[in-house]
Specification:
28% helix, 5 helices, 8 strands, alpha+beta, disordered N terminus
């Protein structure tokens, strides 16, 4: 009886607006977390992947940097940096069945141990997240990253904003869009 009661209780708490658990994520395909590590979010996303996974096959992803601001940098240098960074690039890759079932931590903000999600929500084909990363005061900047988007088995589209402080470049902000679509079977 206790084996049945514990998972039911976990699902009830998650369904009432609380945070998800690994068990509730696996049952519903939804992840709702606050103040969570990248590892914890990736673990729940993997658990939820049976209900939300991308379809294996050939995928094309396009990244577009739409705005870069570097306050305090001399205008000529700032403009040169904007021109270099504001671009669009596409890559085509094969997503295997294993990759589809086991999303990598890098999809959720990399493996930098200095980052935590203030919030992460993935449900009903939408993702909404805020992540804060601590800097080291020198080369690695402290950053706040927000992301919103939509997804289904054959496409995704996200918009991200990064606000960074510290490090060698000082303060900087950047907005980008990432789109991906399944374009066929792997060759």
């Amino acid at each position: 009886m206790m084996r049945v009661l514990v998972p039911c209780l976990a699902l009830t708490v998650a369904a009432c607006g609380g945070e998800s658990t690994r068990d509730s994520a696996a049952a519903t395909g939804e992840v709702e977390m606050r103040n969570a590590s990248v590892v914890d979010v990736a673990e729940q996303a993997r658990a939820a992947s049976a209900a939300t996974r991308f379809q294996p096959g050939q995928w094309r992803s396009t990244v577009e940097v739409v705005d870069v601001q570097v306050p305090g940098m001399p205008e000529g240098m700032a403009e040169q940096m904007r021109q270099q960074m504001m671009s669009r690039s596409s890559v085509t890759s094969c997503m295997t069945e294993e990759q589809s079932a086991n999303p990598s931590e890098s999809l959720f903000g990399g493996q930098r141990g200095q980052c935590r999600f203030d919030r992460f929500s993935m449900k009903a084909g939408r993702v909404d997240a805020v992540m804060t990363c601590a800097g080291d005061g020198r080369a690695i900047e402290a950053a706040r990253i927000t992301m919103t988007g939509t997804f289904d088995a054959t496409h995704f589209e996200t918009e991200s904003a990064i606000e960074s402080t510290g490090g060698e470049r000082g303060r900087m902000s950047m907005r980008s869009r990432v789109k991906g679509e399944r374009i066929g079977d792997c060759a």
